[in-house]
């Protein structure tokens, strides 16, 4: 990529901000290193607007997962400030932090369902943040929560598997259930960390389409990391590239961008 | 060189142990006729007092059940407080761990003596001893099972705003449950065997009957009691093994 295009990309966000609506997530100066290791994130600034879909790309070990976790303080950043849905999360009490987390659905590469519980219980868990232990298990949850969980499952097309144990599902089905659990949170934003990286290409494409479609339909802010150029360009409005602990590219997703993104995939 | 010295030291320890306990083949052979007479005296087992013997056998089993159930229930909070990452504070974790270790390392007979002295003779003292013993055993293994629970689901629930208690209830306990049930069943087997011996120090159960029979050289009755104990322990082990095989999936 040339310096000219970089400068154009850098100038563009300010110009576009007006038509993008309010800010959903803003991070400034994020830095993180683990123990005595090298700096994983050095000085990361990132802004995501409400309703926007953003793909975060970068080679293996570039710090994508770490950055995503820092945004919810699942990993504590060493420096920097994070604004999520209007809350400055660095200063929040544990209780207030939990309230912010409740509003952000997080889908992991590994579905992270509780294997021995039913699919429905796993989806009901999405309400743990607002309903507490009432959302512990499908059998003890109030009927309204159960109905809402079934509706969430229906949105990912798996209502018929509600009573099955989570560890009997295929990879693609598990990931859909994880999405249903996130929807159960009634979120304002969705984060996903390589949500389809462990699925075969066909299933991955299907789940990714469902996921970004649901987010778009509901007007949710979407921030996902990916290892797949087609997913980055096909499902995001904007692509942000991480390299050497910093943001190295931040540009509107367009087919013409592909050559410049090449170096962010390994 | 160091390895060689360690081997020599270990050998010396073993040899001195044999000397220390007065191990002697001659003494053993000399004792053989007495053993034979004892064994012969056991036969035929006497059924004269079969009814009271069966009642105390039942009492023994009840002690084992009550002690295990209460012990298992108490072990859960002890395990949570002493598990890495689940404990609310390092000091609490250290205290809980120390207490569980104390429960485990002091033998059950000593606990039984302690409770006989403090709450009096009888099955209640024995049950208290079994509770302490169970917490010492289950508290440790429950904590290990909880620490080994997959971190992924816990992180997922943390990310969606669940409190620590909810994460333990919804992700940690379901993952640890099979192992905890297996440990509890082992604990019941252990408690059944212990509860037999506890009677020897007056802490209730069939051990008291055995003590009396042996004191009065009533070997035929002792034989009945020993057989009854054998059958009870065997049945509990078989049932527990069956449940364990069925549950661990
Ligand atoms: N909990 C952790 N402890 C130590 N090192 C970590 C931890 N998490 C991530 N890292 C390191 O940080 C770097 C970035 O990891 P990660 O954020 O997972 O990258 P990516 O998701 O882009 O592949 C890697 O070198 C990884 O080894
Ligand atoms: Mg990653």
Question: What does this protein structure show overall?
Answer:
- The complex is a heterodimer of chains A (266) and B (249).
- Chain A has 266 residues and is an alpha/beta fold.
- Chain A has a single domain (3-265), classed as Rossmann fold (3-Layer(aba) Sandwich).
- Helices cover 36% and strands 23% of the residues of chain A.
- Chain A has helices at 3-16, 64-70, 94-102, 119-124, 128-131, 143-155, 171-184, 201-217, 229-235, 258-261; strands spanning 23-33, 39-49, 53-57, 79-84, 87-88, 104-107, 189-193, 221-225, 238-243, 246-252.
- In chain A, strands 6-7-8-3-9-10 form a 6-stranded mixed sheet, sandwiched between helices. In chain A, strands 2-1-4-5 form a 4-stranded antiparallel sheet, covered by helices on one side.
- The model of chain A is unreliable at 1-18 (pLDDT under 50).
- Chain B is an all-alpha fold and 249 residues long.
- Chain B has a single domain (50-248), classed as MetI-like (MetI-like fold), CATH 1.10.3720.10.
- Chain B contains 10 helices and no strands.
- Chains A and B meet through helix 3, strand 6, helix 5 and helix 7 of A and helix 7 and helix 8 of B.
- Bound molecules: adenosine-5'-diphosphate and magnesium ion.
- Residues 34, 37, 40, 58, 60-66 of chain A line the site of adenosine-5'-diphosphate.
CATH superfamily of chain B: MetI-like
Number of helical elements of chain B? 10
Write down the CATH class of chain B: Mainly Alpha
Oligomer: heterodimer
Sheet of most strands of chain B: none
Q: Give the tally of β-strands of chain A.
A: 10
* Number of helical stretches of at least 4 residues of chain A: 10
- Which strand order do you get reading across the main beta sheet of chain A? 6-7-8-3-9-10
The CATH topology of chain A comes to Rossmann fold
Report helical residue fraction of chain B.
over 70%
Q: Tell me the structural class of chain A.
A: alpha/beta
Please write the string of helix (H) and strand (E) elements of chain B: HHHHHHHHHH
> What ligands does this structure carry?
adenosine-5'-diphosphate, magnesium ion
Q: How large is the radius of gyration of chain B?
A: 23 Å
Rg of chain A, rounded, reads: 18 Å
């Amino acid at each position: 990529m040339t310096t000219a295009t970089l400068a154009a990309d850098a100038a563009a966000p300010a110009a576009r901000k007006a038509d993008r609506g309010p800010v959903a997530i803003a991070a400034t100066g994020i830095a993180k290193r683990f123990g005595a290791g090298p700096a994983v994130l050095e000085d990361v600034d990132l802004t995501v607007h409400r309703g926007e879909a953003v793909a975060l790309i970068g080679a293996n070990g570039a710090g994508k997962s770490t950055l995503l976790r820092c945004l919810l303080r699942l990993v504590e950043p060493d420096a920097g400030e994070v604004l999520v849905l209007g809350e400055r999360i660095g200063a929040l009490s544990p209780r207030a932090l939990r309230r912010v987390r409740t509003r952000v659905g997080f889908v992991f590469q590994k579905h992270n369902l509780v294997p021995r519980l039913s699919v429905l219980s796993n989806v009901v868990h999405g309400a743990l943040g607002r309903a507490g232990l009432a959302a512990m298990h499908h059998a003890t949850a109030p009927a309204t929560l159960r109905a809402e969980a079934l509706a969430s499952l229906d949105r990912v097309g798996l209502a018929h598997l509600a009573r099955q144990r989570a560890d009997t599902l295929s990879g693609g089905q598990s990931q859909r259930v994880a999405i249903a659990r996130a929807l159960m949170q009634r979120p304002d934003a969705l984060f996903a960390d390589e949500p389809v990286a462990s699925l075969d290409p066909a299933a991955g494409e299907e789940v990714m389409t469902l996921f970004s479609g649901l987010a778009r339909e509901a007007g949710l802010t979407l921030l996902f990391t990916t290892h797949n150029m087609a997913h980055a360009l096909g499902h995001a409005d904007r692509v942000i590239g991480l390299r050497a602990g910093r943001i190295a590219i931040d540009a509107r997703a367009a087919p013409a961008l592909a050559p410049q993104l090449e170096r962010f995939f390994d | 060189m160091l390895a060689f010295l360690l081997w020599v030291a270990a050998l010396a320890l073993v040899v001195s142990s044999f000397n220390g306990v007065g191990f002697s083949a001659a003494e053993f052979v000399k004792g053989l006729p007495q053993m034979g007479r004892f064994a012969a005296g056991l036969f035929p087992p006497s059924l004269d007092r079969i009814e009271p013997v069966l009642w105390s056998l039942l009492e023994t089993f009840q002690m084992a059940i009550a002690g295990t159930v209460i012990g298992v229930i108490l072990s859960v909070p002890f395990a949570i407080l002493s598990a890495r990452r689940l404990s609310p504070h390092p000091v609490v974790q250290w205290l809980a761990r120390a207490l569980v270790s104390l429960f485990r390392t002091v033998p059950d007979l000593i606990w039984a003596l302690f409770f006989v002295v403090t709450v009096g003779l009888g099955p209640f003292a024995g049950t208290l001893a079994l509770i302490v013993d169970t917490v010492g055993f289950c508290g440790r293994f429950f904590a290990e099972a909880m620490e080994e629970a997959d971190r992924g689901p816990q992180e997922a629930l943390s990310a969606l705003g669940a409190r620590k208690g909810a994460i333990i209830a919804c992700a940690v306990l379901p993952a640890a449950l099979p192992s905890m049930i297996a440990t509890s069943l082992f604990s019941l087997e252990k408690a059944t065997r212990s509860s037999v011996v506890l009677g020897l120090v007056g802490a209730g159960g069939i051990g008291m009957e055995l003590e009396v029979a042996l004191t009065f050289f009533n070997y035929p009755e002792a034989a009945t009691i020993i057989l009854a104990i054998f059958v009870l322990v065997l049945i509990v082990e078989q049932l527990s093994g069956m449940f364990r095989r069925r549950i661990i999936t």
